[in-house]
């Protein structure tokens, strides 16, 4: 079952077909033939037989006459899946036969270990017939720190943030991300912001929020920023309140049952959590919390 993270990444490449072609050149040093347009194609790779092979995104670069000069099989991979080693060669060969031009396989993953697994060459059996996926992992994604580049290609700024949020250029990467988000519509900005925040470490997430409110004096010019930054702060305070309550109960030697723990950790009402914490200071058992 595809996750939200998977679907958002797929949508990024599907909505901006030139993104993958540019990364083939910038991340992998591949010189592509001159092309006039990039477009999405059918990602159904089933030709004959009962097996259905459906990939994430198929991209086509075409000349001024509309003739395909390059094809790209774009796959989002968030975990190890041995079935991909059988499916990816099918995708490449089918799209190549369909377009009758060179085709590249690009696998995108925000996880370094998954990237290492995806890079393993796929031996097809015939001598010399080996498929080596081009894997856009966090070690390959170019860091986007130029604000104009981020505004022109916010999707590249998103990928850059996923890869470099904990690196030495994090502040400049975050600044570029914010510039990129402001250059796109609110609905897409919300989607990209959610993707980034869900993937960031706690330290990186707090740093991003800090930069948005202070260092860069970021003005919340769109609804998504006002809503989502405030929501992130509330979630942070709630997490701390839950942790404080459980620590008080533990310090007082009060055994917390599974049902009570689930009610505490699932609570999002900050006032209620603080009320429980005050009661925990004098409680004799978990039942005293809810009286």
Termini separation comes to 43 Å
The helix-and-strand class reads alpha/beta
- Which bin fits the share of residues in helices? 40-55%
Overall geometry: elongated
Could you describe the largest sheet, including whether it forms a barrel? 5 strands, mixed
Instruction: Write the H/E string, N to C.
Output: HHEEEHEHEEEHHHHHHHH
What fraction of residues sit in β-strands? 5-15%
Average pLDDT, all residues: 84
Outline the low-pLDDT stretches: 219-223
Distinct helical segment count? 12
Number of beta-strand segments = 7
- Could you state the oligomeric state of the chains shown? single chain
State the strand order across the main sheet: 1-2-3-4-7
Q: Evaluate the radius of gyration.
A: 24 Å
Protein architecture, described:
The chain is elongated. The chain has helices at residues 4-15, 18-28, 84-99, 112-118, 147-152, 154-164, 170-182, 186-199, 202-215, 223-251, 258-265, 270-280; strands spanning 37-41, 57-62, 68-76, 103-108, 122-123, 130-131, 134-136. The protein starts with a helix and ends in an 11-residue tail after the last helix. Helix 6 (154-164) runs parallel beside helix 8 and helix 8 (186-199) runs parallel beside helix 10 (223-251). 52% of the residues lie in helices and 11% in strands. The strands form 2 sheets. A 5-stranded mixed β-sheet has the order 1-2-3-4-7, with helices on both faces.
């Amino acid at each position: 079952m595809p996750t939200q993270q998977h679907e958002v990444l797929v949508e990024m490449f599907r909505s901006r077909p030139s993104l993958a072609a540019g990364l083939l050149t910038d991340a992998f040093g591949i010189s592509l033939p001159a092309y006039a347009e990039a477009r999405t194609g059918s990602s159904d790779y089933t030709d004959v037989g009962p097996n259905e092979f459906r990939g994430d995104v198929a991209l086509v670069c075409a000349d001024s006459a509309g003739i395909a000069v390059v094809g790209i099989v774009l796959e989002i991979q968030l975990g190890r899946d041995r079935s991909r080693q059988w499916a990816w060669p099918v995708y490449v060969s089918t799209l190549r036969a369909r377009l009758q031009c060179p085709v590249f396989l690009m696998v995108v993953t925000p996880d370094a270990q998954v990237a290492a697994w995806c890079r393993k060459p796929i031996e097809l059996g015939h001598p010399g017939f080996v498929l080596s996926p081009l894997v856009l992992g966090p070690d390959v994604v170019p860091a986007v720190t130029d604000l104009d580049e981020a505004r022109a290609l916010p999707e590249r700024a998103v990928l850059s943030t996923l890869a470099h949020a904990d690196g030495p250029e994090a502040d400049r990467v975050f600044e570029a991300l914010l510039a990129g988000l402001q250059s796109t519509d609110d609905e897409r900005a919300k989607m990209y912001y959610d993707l980034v925040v869900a993937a960031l470490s706690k330290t990186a997430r707090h740093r991003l929020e800090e930069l948005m409110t202070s260092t860069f004096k970021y003005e919340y010019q769109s609804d998504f920023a006002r809503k989502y930054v405030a929501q992130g702060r509330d979630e942070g305070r709630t997490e701390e309140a839950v942790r404080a309550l459980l620590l008080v109960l533990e310090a007082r030697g009060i055994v917390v049952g599974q049902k009570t723990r689930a009610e505490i950790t699932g609570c999002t009402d900050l006032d209620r959590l603080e009320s429980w914490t005050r009661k925990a200071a004098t409680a004799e058992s978990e039942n005293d919390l809810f009286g």
